[in-house]
Amino acid sequence: MSLFDVIDAAFPSLGQRLRPASPAPVPPRPALPPASVSHAHPQADREIRLGDCRVAYRLRRARRKSIGFVVSADGLTVSAPRWVGQGDIDQALQAKSGWILRKLTEQRERHQHLEAARIDWRDGAQLPFLGATLALRLDTAVVGAHLQHDPAQGVPRCLRVGLAQGAAPTQIRDVVQSWLQQEALRHFEGRCAHFAERLGVSVRRLRLSAAQTRWGSASADGSIRLNWRLIHFSPAVIDYVVAHELAHLREMNHSPAFWEVVRSVIPDLDARRAALKSPVLPLFD
Question: Is the pTM of this model over 0.85?
Fold first, then answer.
């Protein structure tokens, strides 16, 4: 029997006043909502919540004076002096969260873009050609590559490549790339002749380009370079680029006068130019 039991027996009302009240139940802390997006470095050894994202990052201790951040294809790497505590690192991450999340998103989108552009070079693979989808068929009955059209609609349907079913992916890729470049030059020559007549200019030389960031260029001497990868786009988009470069033979600038020249032959140039933005084109690496 405890002291309070004795008091309860002798003085019931006093015992109730002296007995300590039971502590009020503590409500559980609300759980944080799950992060909507996560970014993980393959060598991550730390994790932090930035906004609605969980970011698993790699922490490197280095001989430096400040905390640094690098966002690469792998993810986020944080470099910090050995004497900086984890709390200070977390604060720095939160302060830079906007920049970090933006760069991580850009890297993820770039990766998705590359994956969408990757081609499994085999029989049945598909790639864009003049704005349509072209299927590859390996066929030893043909030499090189031969375009087959749909008999009903007359549009390109498949490309027969003169290789056996067991051909290496690099062999298939090289034959297809060579054929695409030949087709590009043939198509560009016809369109250059068409727009040169309409614009009253003379094309002295046409060459193919493999530039990473430019679709075409023009020189004052009448030389035109067009990126062979344009052959993936629709004829309307190709026409815009051709007219754009030939217009430079009259106006070597991007002045209002230049755009009036382009618009004289491509009235809907804005829509066609927009189609060149961030295309998903096949990789030939």
Answer: no
